[in-house]
């Protein structure tokens, strides 16, 4: 009950902040509204053409706000002519989602969408409660997702991280209910944000679920095909060019690099020698004021990019190898092969998948709250040192969330990325250690409840009888 009260209060506070600071006047939200407006104006076939998009922006923005939106969204590429190609980084599928909301003027659309996004967090909490068999309740899970970095910033900017979280959680909930085809159909909706779809598509392969993979491919392909009657093929070709331009900007733009939280951007920051690190630590401890030229510097040249790609490949390969090794050891020892749902091993898989998203900003971290919840569901099964470490890790993430709201917090050292990497490595070690040391590993058979000497209450007996098949010793 306390978690419910806190979750509702936090959600209302975020909404009040988002509506008070006029979050609709940001390029983050305006680019999404623009895409939906192009569909509303029957101009979707002209998506990513600068001149037509300027006209659409004038329908919602005026004066200085219009100039800022045009500059930040449309004039960031090499050419600024009206017939040049530039625009939002989202594919045409996202415009189809935004079409109903772009009928409204930007401020109203922003207010409606942010309200929906907060509600989606509670929906994700419901999914997580189902996934964990009630080990985390809906209010608790929703509160964890809300205080995970950087939900408040995403709501203010009108960003859609809670939609991504709901899609990933909903698909995983269906997987836990042994509905792999439906799970894949839900995950296919990530075609609205293809970098997440590309990062998660290998998860069904690791789970050895062809129906999961098939559903994801069918749903994603169908979503893309649904845009063709409105826009045709040409905008998809233009979008590839916009993405290519953006990748070049990501490699050099100071602001984008320091606001990102992906692995690719880690080595591009100049913070790996003592001189630069000291400057950032002094900023964090309030011993230095913000200095753009001193603190927001990047490594030139291709070496940082090579290292970043090596980090991505390393996390991906270690996740796949460790997961397959745990499964192989479990089969060799004749352990039950129930679907992975909650606990360290699925947390490890989802942490690894989401960390391999090619590019994401600080406000895109919220989907990582799902594997953290799956890890927290195993808290009673851990020893006290591990419980203390897990709680300390989450406290640090909450502090990072609060710190992001302070001036220049989004462009400081990416503590959140390091903390999630630690959670990923730790959950993998827990899963591997369990399968090596236990007769029936409590962290491998993740669809199994913790056995108890006392009889379960009637509602928990119902959960146990319907979803759990192989009780394991505590």
Q: How would you sum up this structure, described in words?
A:
The protein has 474 residues and is mainly α. The protein folds into two domains: 2-231, no CATH class; 254-288 and 296-446, no CATH class. The chain is built from 24 helices and no strands. The protein has helices at 2-20, 27-40, 50-58, 63-74, 92-98, 106-131, 138-146, 151-156, 161-176, 180-187, 194-200, 203-206, 210-226, 228-231, 234-250, 254-259, 274-284, 292-295, 303-332, 344-355, 369-376, 384-404, 415-437, 458-467.
Topology:
Blueprint: H1 2-20, H2 27-40, H3 50-58, H4 63-74, H5 92-98, H6 106-131, H7 138-146, H8 151-156, H9 161-176, H10 180-187, H11 194-200, H12 203-206, H13 210-226, H14 228-231, H15 234-250, H16 254-259, H17 274-284, H18 292-295, H19 303-332, H20 344-355, H21 369-376, H22 384-404, H23 415-437, H24 458-467
Helix pairs in contact: 1-6, 1-7, 2-5, 3-4, 6-7, 6-9, 9-10, 10-13, 19-20, 19-23, 20-21, 20-23, 22-23
- Count of runs of 4 or more consecutive helical residues: 24
Task: Compute the average pLDDT.
Answer: 86
Shape: globular
How much of the polypeptide forms β-strand, as a percent range?
under 5%
Largest sheet: none
Q: Give the radius of gyration.
A: 23 Å
How many domain modules? Answer: 2
The quaternary organization reads as single chain
Number of strands: 0
By secondary-structure content and strand pairing, the structural class works out as mainly alpha
Order of SSEs: HHHHHHHHHHHHHHHHHHHHHHHH
């Amino acid at each position: 009950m306390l978690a419910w009260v806190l979750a509702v209060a936090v959600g209302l506070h975020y909404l009040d902040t988002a509506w008070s600071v006029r979050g609709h006047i940001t390029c983050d939200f305006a680019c999404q509204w623009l895409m939906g407006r192009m569909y509303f104006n029957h101009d979707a076939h002209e998506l990513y053409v600068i001149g037509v998009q300027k006209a659409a922006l004038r329908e919602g923005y005026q004066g200085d706000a219009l100039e800022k939106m045009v500059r930040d969204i449309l004039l960031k590429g090499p050419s600024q002519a009206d017939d040049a190609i530039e625009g939002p980084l989202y594919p045409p599928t996202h415009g189809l989602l935004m079409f109903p909301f772009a009928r409204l003027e930007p401020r109203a659309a922003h207010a409606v969408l942010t309200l929906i996004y907060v509600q989606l967090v509670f929906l994700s909490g419901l999914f997580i409660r189902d996934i964990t068999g009630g080990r985390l309740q809906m209010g608790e899970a929703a509160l964890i997702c809300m205080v995970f970095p950087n939900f408040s910033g995403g709501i203010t900017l009108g960003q859609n991280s809670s939609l991504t979280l709901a899609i990933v959680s909903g698909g995983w909930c269906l997987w836990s209910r042994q509905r792999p085809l439906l799970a894949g159909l839900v995950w296919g909706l990530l075609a609205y944000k293809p970098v997440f779809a590309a990062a998660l598509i290998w998860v069904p392969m690791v789970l050895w679920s062809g129906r999961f993979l098939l559903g994801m491919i069918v749903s994603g392909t169908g979503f893309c095909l649904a845009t063709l009657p409105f826009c045709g093929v040409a905008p998809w070709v233009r979008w590839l060019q916009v993405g290519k331009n953006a990748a070049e900007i990501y490699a050099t733009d100071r602001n984008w690099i320091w606001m990102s939280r992906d692995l690719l951007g880690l080595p591009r920051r100049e913070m790996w020698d003592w001189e630069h690190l000291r400057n950032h630590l002094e900023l964090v401890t309030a011993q230095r004021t913000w200095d753009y030229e001193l603190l927001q510097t990047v490594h030139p040249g291709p070496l940082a990019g090579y290292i970043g790609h090596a980090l991505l490949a390393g996390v991906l390969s270690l996740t796949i190898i460790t997961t397959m090794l745990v499964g192989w050891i479990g089969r060799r020892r004749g352990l039950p092969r129930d679907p992975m749902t909650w606990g360290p091993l699925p947390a490890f898989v989802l942490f690894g998948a989401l960390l391999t998203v090619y590019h994401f900003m600080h406000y895109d971290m919220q989907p990582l709250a799902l594997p953290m919840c799956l890890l927290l569901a195993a808290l009673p099964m851990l020893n006290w040192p591990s419980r203390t470490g897990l709680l300390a890790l989450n406290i640090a993430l909450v502090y990072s969330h609060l710190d992001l709201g302070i001036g220049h917090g989004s462009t400081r050292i990416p503590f959140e990325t390091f903390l999630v990497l630690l959670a990923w490595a730790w959950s993998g070690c827990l899963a591997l250690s369990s399968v090596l040391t236990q007769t029936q590993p409590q962290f491998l058979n993740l669809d199994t409840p913790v056995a108890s000497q006392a009889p379960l209450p009637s509602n928990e007996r119902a959960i146990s009888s319907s979803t759990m098949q192989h009780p394991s010793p505590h």
